[in-house]
Amino acid sequence: MKAGFVNIFGRPNAGKSTLLNALMGEKMAIVSPKVQTTRHRIKAILTEKDYQVVFSDTPGIIEPKYRLHEKMMDAVKSALEDADVALLIVDVNENWSEADEIFGALKLKVPAIVVINKIDRAGQEKIKEAVAFFESKSYCKKLLTISASSGINIRQFLKPILELLPEAEPFYPGDDISDLPTKFFVGELVREKIYELLSDELPYQTAVLVREFKEKSTLVKIVADIIVQRETQKAILLGEKGSMIKKIGTEARKEIEKFLQQKVFLELFVKVKPKWRENEMQLKEYGY
């Protein structure tokens, strides 16, 4: 049996989370057009009769500006340490030299597959040039071209990965699809709606803390706090007469019900915690 860790690295918005979701056939990581949506390392476990692949989505690689950013980059480092295979994902339309610099700086000790993404948004000539550029790099063991958002052929995608994975016993029981608790995914789905419905910098200054998760006979009761840094941000999140928080709650509840396949009662509160992105104790409390 083949088993191992296949960890996904790349710049913000290269399509790491979309790829993870496409490979798993369900939503494991939240997706947004905004950069730096992924803040944690998210493991997704794909188990079949003759293999178990543990994929990891990681935060987009950036220069840290806050303690929160440092924590995000720590998640990238931990994924570098246990990888059996690295997937280096690059948007075909981004700056290849900058991506190359980042991939080179990872100093990988394992085989890497370069994944050129979003080929549905580029002409054949540009795709050929990107392939030639990355195939010439020493870290590139194999290369794949995909459009993660349009769907991928999982068998074709997995074939070169499985060739590089070691023979090993599975790491997780066959019915596990992640090592993260359900509460984590619930909080992420609330955060996704904040990214969708609020513009500019505000989503980056929010965190979500699920305080209560109770399974009752007819529904699941969830209580969560949305953390912001300033009172003005709280006012925007609440909206006029509570209209924005209501909209976030309604949209998030629908997604959570899809995820849990159960009826959900969701209650959201907004709390102000100044400079939480720099506060070690608060970062730990919020799961970072």
| Anisotropy-based shape | globular
Instruction: Give the number of helices.
Output: 9
The H/E string reads EHEEHEHEHEHHEEHHEH
Radius of gyration from CA coordinates: 20 Å
Look at the helices and sheets and give the structural class: alpha/beta
CATH topology annotation of the largest domain: Rossmann fold
How many beta-strand segments? 9
Question: Which band does the percent of strand residues land in?
Answer: 15-25%
**Superfamily at the CATH H level of the largest domain?**
P-loop containing nucleotide triphosphate hydrolases
Which spans of ≥5 residues are poorly predicted at pLDDT below 50? none
Mean residue pLDDT: 95
The largest sheet is: 6 strands, mixed
* CATH class category name of the largest domain: Alpha Beta
Helix content: 25-40%
- Annotated CATH architecture of the largest domain: 3-Layer(aba) Sandwich
Distance between the amino and carboxyl termini: 34 Å
Strand order of the largest sheet: 2-3-1-4-5-6
- Count of separate structural domains: 2
Please name the defining characteristics of this protein.
single chain, 288 residues, alpha/beta, Rossmann fold, GMP Synthetase, Chain A, domain 3, 2 domains, three-stranded mixed beta sheet, 9 strands, globular
How are the SSEs placed, and which strands pair?
Layout: E1 2-10, H1 16-24, E2 42-48, E3 51-57, H2 67-82, E4 85-91, H3 96-105, E5 112-117, H4 124-135, E6 140-145, H5 154-164, H6 182-197, E7 207-215, E8 220-228, H7 231-238, H8 243-260, E9 264-272, H9 280-285
Can you describe what's shown?
This protein is an alpha/beta fold. The chain folds into two domains: 2-164, Rossmann fold (3-Layer(aba) Sandwich), CATH 3.40.50; 182-285, GMP Synthetase, Chain A, domain 3 (2-Layer Sandwich). The protein has helices at residues 16-24, 67-82, 96-105, 124-135, 154-164, 182-197, 231-238, 243-260, 280-285, and strands at residues 2-10, 42-48, 51-57, 85-91, 112-117, 140-145, 207-215, 220-228, 264-272. The chain has a six-stranded mixed sheet with strand order 2-3-1-4-5-6, sandwiched between helices. Strand 2 (42-48) and strand 3 form a beta hairpin. The radius of gyration is 20 Å and the shape is globular. The mean pLDDT is 95.
